[in-house]
């Protein structure tokens, strides 16, 4: 028997990098988060680079994206750093390790991966105000724990359920961390659908805009199926 070839690492269906792809989310109770991919540039070695623009609460930021054999990495670590870029704070990345989304071969039941992000944060400048620097490290361990159908405002999707354990601690020797459990759902050719913490939805996909619209599978259209066309009688 011939062993099945591993799926190509790029493009990564769990974090699509398409020029003009725009994902709009509800963040928290009423805020809107927009993630827009632009400047996609495939390289001869099979890797792909792009820019991810982030908009949240009227503030904007951006980060570099790289897809390679390890998965999709951002210049600001995983989702946590990407959201920080639009927080209004000055974000200096001290160290970022691991992929935000791993290679397709890892995105299977039981698949696990880790990433780590160390940053220095400064609040927005205010006239006469102090700008303390906050040094924080986020360590995250993620595991694929299920495959299920998920309904969000943008539609119904077949998705992978990911369990995250994120530990945040001050970036100093001996500092104790605080761990938090969260769950994320990813759909192929879309990316993140939803993020929940303690049963509360922190992020929910509202709509998907892509200039070069693909033919959407039934799972994305709420399970709708086309009726078979009967051949005309001669």
Automatic annotation (TrEMBL):
Region of interest (Disordered), residue spans: 214-234
InterPro entries, alphabetized: DUF3108-like
Pfam families, per the entry: DUF3108_like
Domain of life: Bacteria
Name listed for the protein in its UniProt record: DUF3108 domain-containing protein
Biological classification of the source: Bacteria, Pseudomonadati, Myxococcota, Myxococcia, Myxococcales
Biased composition (Basic residues): 224-234
Record-annotated DUF3108 domain positions: 141-194
Gene source species: Corallococcus aberystwythensis
């Amino acid at each position: 028997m011939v062993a099945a070839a591993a799926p190509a690492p790029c493009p990564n269906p769990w974090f699509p990098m398409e020029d003009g792809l725009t994902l709009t989310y509800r963040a928290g109770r009423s805020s809107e988060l927009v993630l827009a991919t632009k400047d996609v540039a495939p390289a001869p070695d099979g890797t792909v680079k792009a820019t991810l623009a982030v908009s949240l609460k009227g503030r904007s930021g951006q980060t570099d994206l790289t897809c390679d054999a390890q998965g999709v990495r951002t210049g600001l670590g995983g989702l946590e750093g990407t959201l920080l870029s639009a927080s209004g704070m000055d974000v200096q990345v001290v160290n970022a390790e691991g992929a935000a989304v791993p290679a397709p071969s890892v995105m299977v039941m039981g698949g696990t991966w880790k990433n780590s992000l160390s940053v220095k944060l400064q609040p927005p400048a205010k006239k006469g105000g102090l700008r303390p620097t906050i040094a924080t490290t986020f360590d995250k361990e993620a595991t694929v724990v299920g495959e299920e159908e998920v309904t969000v405002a943008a539609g119904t999707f077949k998705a992978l359920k990911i369990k995250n354990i994120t530990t945040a601690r001050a970036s100093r020797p001996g500092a104790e961390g605080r761990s938090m459990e969260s769950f994320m759902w990813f759909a192929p050719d879309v990316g993140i659908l939803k993020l929940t913490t303690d049963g509360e939805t922190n992020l929910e996909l509202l709509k998907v805009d892509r200039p070069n619209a693909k033919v959407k599978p039934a799972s994305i259209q709420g399970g709708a199926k086309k009726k078979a066309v009967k051949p005309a009688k001669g």
